[in-house]
Specification:
The complex is a heterodimer of chains A (about 120) and B (about 110). Chain A is built from no helices and eleven strands. By secondary structure, chain A is mainly beta.
């Protein structure tokens, strides 16, 4: 257990519904990342927060996806009007920003597995 | 071209064998590299980080070749429990991490 938690662990929804996932990072980590992973692929970057600021967002992220980290602690990822192609594992990771650029090791949560029917 | 590329395998090796995986990256500005292990339907777990030329941890050795832009992972004396998918990742600023598709390893008794 890395200390990153995600809720729910599984979500089944019907196409067109909205879903929201939550991630609680390791407490002293100020960086938080969301990824999507489908079968046979590596994690695909979606977005990144440093504290409460969303600093990076993938061009692949459609406007149906939105993420927040209002107090710089937990984060939520919402998908509106879900489509079958949204079915995937949604992973959250956190890291602690270090002085040396790039030396940030990410630790992943267990993921939320989304199935859109 | 993908930022990080890996041979998906599968690699099937007998117990006790030595196996090596390579991972190439396209961004020469990448500064930090990581190997993760991922079991079926589980999250990636950090195996090793590589910032300079290499890193060693027990049976696992990671090496970085900046000139050729690849990192490798060597597993010695393979155990059945090493069966998993091995993901490599690269980052330049720590803002975005790019993952390969993973290499599947099965260690056979």
């Amino acid at each position: 257990d890395t200390g990153v938690s995600q809720d729910p662990r599984h979500k089944i929804t019907k196409r067109g519904q909205n879903v929201t996932f939550r991630c609680d990072p390791i407490s002293e980590h100020n960086r938080l990342y969301w990824y999507r992973q489908t079968l046979g692929q590596g994690p695909e970057f979606l977005t990144y927060f440093q504290n409460e600021a969303q600093l990076e967002k993938s061009r692949l992220l459609s406007d149906r996806f939105s993420a927040e980290r209002p107090k710089g602690s937990f984060s939520t990822l919402e998908i509106q009007r879900t489509e079958q192609g949204d079915s995937a594992m949604y992973l959250c990771a956190s890291s602690k920003a270090l002085l040396r650029v790039g030396m940030n090791t990410q630790y992943f949560g267990p993921g939320t597995r989304l199935t859109v029917l | 071209r993908k930022e990080v590329e890996q041979d998906p395998g599968p690699f099937n090796v007998p117990e006790g064998a030595t196996v090596a995986f390579n991972c190439t990256y396209s961004n020469s500005a990448s500064q930090s590299f990581f190997w993760y292990r991922q079991d079926c339907r589980k999250e990636p777990k950090l195996l090793m980080s590589v910032y300079s030329s290499g890193n060693e941890d027990g049976r696992f050795t990671a090496q970085l070749n900046r000139a050729s832009q690849y990192i490798s992972l060597l597993i010695r004396d393979s155990k059945l429990s090493d069966s998993a998918t091995y993901l490599c990742a690269a980052t330049n600023t720590g803002n975005q991490f790019y993952f390969g598709t993973g290499t599947s390893l099965t260690v056979i008794p």
